[in-house]
């Protein structure tokens, strides 16, 4: 029995039809085992319909407070749902999105995280951490039972292209470097993303790389168990 357990989690499920299609394809290939759902977008309904048909998929809430793009070293909002530094507004929006998740999925989320990792900052971090504890589910980077790996991502911290991160060689290296215990590997697949400005080309590349047989072969050679958040022992 392997002591290395890998959750391949697709962020942004429900944001667009192209993201949903890529997720469905990669789930059927057996490589993506989990997803984080953005409930505010029209495509979320179709994503939830698909996920409900396959109970082995773990589906979390991908809290969406906005999206920001870096231009000339300065981050500017592409859109903002509520100001992320306004505790009352964030609490209300988190509860609204959690309710919408429950209406779409008919259950609580299996894990929590956020769009562009806004929960790394206060007050979002404390708000989500408290909800995660109340639900007994992991919050990304705040659960000792599971490590998060975000190194399969095709942009740098300032939004500049970083194509060497989303190659087959890099993904295979990340797989082979998986430690004992549970690891969440983040990914952002998508196809036909003509309307998605920030991470359009990279989504297609990620989808192709995740589909590559060498990735699945490395997982099997390393005797790594592909799993989902359903199996993570939350303290």
Question: Concise description?
Answer:
The protein is of the alpha/beta class and 235 residues long. 36% of the residues lie in helices and 21% in strands. Helix 1 links the parallel strand 1 and strand 2.
Task: Walk me through what this model shows.
The mean pLDDT is 95. Strand 1, helix 1 and strand 2 (34-37) form a beta-alpha-beta unit. The protein has helices at residues 17-29, 44-53, 87-105, 124-135, 168-176, 200-211, 213-221, and strands at residues 4-13, 34-37, 58-63, 66-71, 74-80, 112-114, 146-149, 181-187, 225-226. The chain is α/β, with parallel strands linked by helices and 235 residues long. The chain has a single domain, classed as Glycoside hydrolase/deacetylase (TIM Barrel, Alpha-Beta Barrel), CATH 3.20.20.370. Strands 1, 2, 3, 6, 7, 8 and 9 form a seven-stranded parallel β-sheet that branches. A two-stranded antiparallel sheet has the order 4-5. It is 36% helix and 21% strand. The protein is built from seven helices and nine strands; from the N terminus they run βαβαβββαβαβαβααβ.
